[in-house]
Please model this.
Amino acid sequence: MTNFINAQIAALQGQINTKAAITYVDSTLSNAVSQINNTISTLTSRVSTIENKTTTAATANSIAQRDSNGALTANNFIGTISYANVIGSPVYSQVASQNGWTQLPNGILIQWGRVSSYDTGESVQGPFNFTKSFSSPPWSITATPFLINANGGADVWLQVITSSITASHFSVQYQRATAPSYGLDGFTWMAIGPA
Model:
């Protein structure tokens, strides 16, 4: 741009005193300034576009990165995005133990536990409390008897007493096929219902 202006000034040096030459230089300079302003505007727009792409790329990189093989992998940023941040309730919470529970984002509560209770008769056992109360009685409860040591004569099983089920507890009844006094060592249970 400077070379252009210098060439124009050199061409007009002989005519500098004439009014036409002054008008010509004024017009040429005005056009040059207009072109410079347009160039500045274009560059500003391009810088803004590059900044936006850089921000987008930085956000994308904070969500996913490439491993040493070039495959995309999620990083810890994803862990900060949760159902709670978006919807306002927990994504999921849990107590992971032998007697525990998991609450899913859709409001379903899954619980499990282990009861050590030796019994040889056909008696009702319980009530056994859920680790966390349901909002209403659970939809399903299963109970699986266990023996600590194998015993071929222990034909004993148990049943969940449905009339005993509440939002906070349940009971079971041991049953056996034969009269020997073999018993169960306990049972594990799982319940599914509304949180």
